[in-house]
Amino acid sequence: MYLPSATESAVEKENTTNKEVHRKNKQKQKQDNCMATVDQKVTIDCPWSIYSTIIALTFCIPFNAKHSLLSAGKRKYVQVCVQNLSELCFQLSDNSLKNSADYTDLQLVPLNPESQQVIYSKQSIFFVWELKWTKELPLSLQCLFSVSFCPATSEEQSLTLKPFTYEFQVENFFTLYHVKTEIFPPLGAEYCKTGSLCSLEVSITRLVDLSEVDRDEALTESD
């Protein structure tokens, strides 16, 4: 996303001191914005001139995304976290997660609200899809996440921006361990109460239906 800065006046172009002030103000504007930026330079050549014009452009990256694979029993979920890096508030809509390999026996069922969501400055929003399959899970899953966004302020909602996309790959779908926890009240008591000493029981079971490679890695990591 390109956020244009104020243009220099003719006096500033001729005065080196004013140029330095303008450069410092521009750097201060970047720091105040706190948005991840990418600097690019564009060279413009005109056929009727022997000189080239170099224009500096600063593109701001509004979002950062990361993914994780969640497991609950035999059910598996793909979670995508979108973080707003800017000082602006955006309105998110039309989120989707597609499998680029197009497996016919695999479905990505969205568990997200269909309505538009507002993501505030420095806020993170999570999107979750449940994996459903009929035969067996593939060895790897190539995913493409996409979400449309626009500034949340009414005067800037007319801006046409391309959807934010995030491509990632998920591997090793195997569930290595099953974890179960339970809290018990003290002996002779029916419920757990504040101030009473209760016991916590944690059961960790390594699943046996693993491939040879995954079984060796599980044994090595747990040791």
From TrEMBL:
Residues 1-30 are annotated as: Disordered. GO terms for cellular component: cytosol; TRAPPII protein complex. GO terms for biological process: early endosome to Golgi transport; intra-Golgi vesicle-mediated transport. Signal peptide: none annotated. InterPro entries: TRAPPC10/Trs130 (IPR045126). Residues 10-20 have a biased composition (Basic and acidic residues). PANTHER family: EPILEPSY HOLOPROSENCEPHALY CANDIDATE 1/TMEM1, TRAFFICKING PROTEIN PARTICLE COMPLEX SUBUNIT 10. This is Trafficking protein particle complex subunit 10. It comes from Phalacrocorax carbo (Great cormorant).
